[in-house]
Amino acid sequence: MDNSEDYFHPADFVIFGAMLLISTIIGIFFAVRDRSNNSTDNYYFAGRKANPIPVALSLIVSFVSAIAVIGLPVEVYLHGTTFAWNTIAQLIATIIAILYYIPVYHRLRLKSVYEYLELRFHVSVRKVASLLAMLNLILYLGVVIYMPSLTLSAVTPLSLYWAIALTSVICTFYTAVGGMKAVIWTDVFQSGIMMAGMLSVFIQGVITLGGIEPLREAADRGGRSNFLTFTFDPRTRSTFWTVAFGLGLNACFETGCNQVYIQRYLSCKTVKTARIALLLTLAPGFFFTLISVANGLVMYAFFEGCDPHKAGIVEKVDQIIPRLALQIFQHAPGMAGLFVSAAYCGTLSSVSSGVNALSALTMMDFISPFFPNMSPRIKVWLSKGLTLCFGLLVMALAYIISFSDANIIEIVVSISGFIGGPMIGIFTMGLFFPWINYLGALVGLILGWAAATWVGLTAMYVTQYEGSNKQLPISIDNCTALPTSATDMNMTTTYMTPTTTSFEGSGYNFTTTESYNPRINTTFYSMSPFLYGVWGFLVTVFFGHVISLISGFNKPSEANPDLFMPFLPIKAFRFGVPKRSKRKIEVEEENESPM
């Protein structure tokens, strides 16, 4: 894009710059205010006295990120509205965390969520789980940084690589100096920007299109009104079942055993306030999901018949929605800047939370056990150094991801499923199945992760069932004055034939010729990417039981009752685990009561 009209107006730069400045000032404020409080409890858990309302906003924006602002509308643009069922996934995960996970974590006063696995199983289980979770989070953050950087490079003269560097430096800086308090209160500010930016695109888009009815008609013509897809075929990419329950399991990982969430729970003083905080995430979570789906429909209706990516107007499909913002806000300087600020706020909140969690996991799981007498002051300074190092690491990963053309939502869901399913599997066995021993847990976790990763990676390179990644139709029939290069671009999505299959439509740009396609490729390896987590969960739980049976089940009667949570509050579901002492319960109730 070399036309100045394709870039920000001065007012857009002012709004964007103000957002970055305010985020940085919040971090500096908390660094100065808490400079005398050199404790890891204050740095990682905000002194365990955080208000549930800001914690709730911090929870939701920590995982909404630019993926919802930019990636989810693209998902709807390419695959339709089925992803709206993700609201059910959020509801399921919230209920499960409120009932089972939050009480146990507060009871044990954990600093690392994987400390629970050491208490319940063995230190080796804790180390392996923590390493896998850190790998998952690093990959996720790399994608999160890449998304808004791609947007910024599309609407300013700034190159993608400088945009990635700017994003990484800003959020790593205010997280390192301000700790969890800076993260939470910056998230509160950024959540408002995100809501305003996303809503403004929808409202102006509807006005530009001439109302809701033209939007609905365009969605019907393009097959995007596929919300009510209830097929039970697990090979179909997006259905009610794959989204609500497949992604629901991934969401359980986020709310139940992800360090980012657990630090927020433990920042609250009591179980009650932590539960309130998580419950308060539902309304904004539903809003972000549904407004992203709506923006995807606006994007399709606006570019119906002239897809900017296929026409060669933008380099990558994820740049379409910032292109939309520039066009619909041509005569409203500052509004495009507000939308890009929304995408950036999502990333700043996610990366700040993520690098803080990575620093906490490294400190609590790998450094503190070897240096138990380290002074609090040194721990805090080392924590800040770790935060800076992880910020640089995810920045480097974002550079690597920038060379990929894959669908961002699919990358994120796959990464989450590879580790999320097995991880929720091992925590499920820990909480509800007292007979599982440490060897069963360890082998189950490793095999579950390997099984989910194997299926996901293999699926990228084999000829699949045509419904697995099929995109809805897009065209350039109504475009005028196409770039010369557009006529030479091979952008047509071609699906499975007996001999030749192109994978360009799914983002993996290579062509393969086969005379024989094994049945497993069009069945097992064609499962929806939203089900990778379910597969990993089932493998983990199955082998956890098999290995525990072979090596000898634990005796429930000898179990520590503080580490268990019966599925239902009846004797049968305790499976012989002793009841918790009345004194411990009384102490917890005293701590829960208001002072």
How would you describe this structure to a colleague?
The protein is an all-alpha fold. It has a domain at 8-418: Sodium/glucose cotransporter. It has 19 helices and 2 strands. The chain has a two-stranded antiparallel ribbon. A hairpin with an 8-residue loop joins strand 1 (500-502) and strand 2. Helix 1 runs parallel beside helix 14, helix 3 (52-79) packs antiparallel against helix 10 and helix 4 (86-108) packs antiparallel against helix 11 (271-279).
Q: Largest beta sheet: what is the strand line-up?
A: 1-2
For the biggest sheet, the summary is: 2 strands, antiparallel
* CA gyration radius, whole angstroms: 24 Å
Low-confidence blocks of residues: 484-515
Number of strands: 2
Q: What fraction strand?
A: under 5%
Q: State the order of secondary-structure elements, H for helix, E for strand.
A: HHHHHHHHHHHHHHHHHEEHH
- Give the overall silhouette: globular
CATH class of the domain at 8-418: Mainly Alpha
The helicity comes to: 55-70%
The CATH homologous superfamily name of the domain at 8-418 equals Sodium/glucose cotransporter
CATH topology of the domain at 8-418: Sodium/glucose cotransporter
Features:
19 helices, single chain, globular, Sodium/glucose cotransporter, 595 residues, mainly alpha, 64% helix
